[in-house]
Amino acid sequence: MFHLDEYVGLPETHPASFCKYLQERFIDKVGIGEVHLLSGTDDPARVMKKIGEQLQRAPIDVAFVGVGENGHLAFNDPPADFDTQEPYAIVTLDEPCRRQQLNEGWFPTLEDVPKQAISMTISQMLKATEILCIVPDARKASAVKNCFEATVSPMAPASALQNHANTTVYLDAASSSMLSPKSFVQQTK
Questions:
Q1: Distance from CA of residue 180 to its chain's centroid?
Q2: Is the peptide bond before 15 cis (omega within 30 degrees of 0)?
Q3: What Cα–Cα distance (Å) separates residue 121 from each residue in 42, 52, 106, 187?
Q4: Contact 71/156 with Cβ under 8 angstroms?
Q5: Can you tell me the distance from the alpha carbon of 66 to that of 87, in angstroms, rounded to the nearest whole number?
Q6: Can you tell me the distance from the alpha carbon of 92 to that of 148, in angstroms, rounded to the nearest whole number?
Q7: What is the pTM of this model?
Q8: pLDDT single digits (tens) 57-97
Q9: CB–CB of 47/54 below 8 Å?
Q10: How far apart are CA 76 and CA 132, in angstroms?
């Protein structure tokens, strides 16, 4: 299992650490044999190099992703870099992304939300054989509309999923509330 993203500078013991989240809610419960987690406290360049090299040797069968309120995919905020072929990048989190993290209750103030993260790149995610994208909640309805009804654009990073031949997007009634009826027809490429 390869980790999608982690805040730069955030220890694994912090409640908002994605390492902590994955370990407690997924890895420990499922018993995955080999995991490659991104350390938020180690040197980001070293972390990206090490995990990126391991990722290059292991084809990804399934990528589990979500869409942020600003349309981000992993922590690739708009405008996302669709061109890099590196497996991971250091990204600067925009204010809407940081506000989402604050509003979800992970941090006491906006200033406490880290400003950078290590994120798997869009091009790397699109190399997965299959992508499952799960997007619940009304606060993501606008991003869902922008990413899945408009043209593919770095300003709507998750729109890149339109270019993947084997992506399934799961929405609830709230997150799909702004989609036009034609969007509910199963699309195949």
A1: 25
A2: no
A3: 19, 11, 24, 25
A4: yes
A5: 18
A6: 24
A7: 0.92
A8: 988 999 999 999 999 999 999 999 999 999 999 999 999 99
A9: no
A10: 17
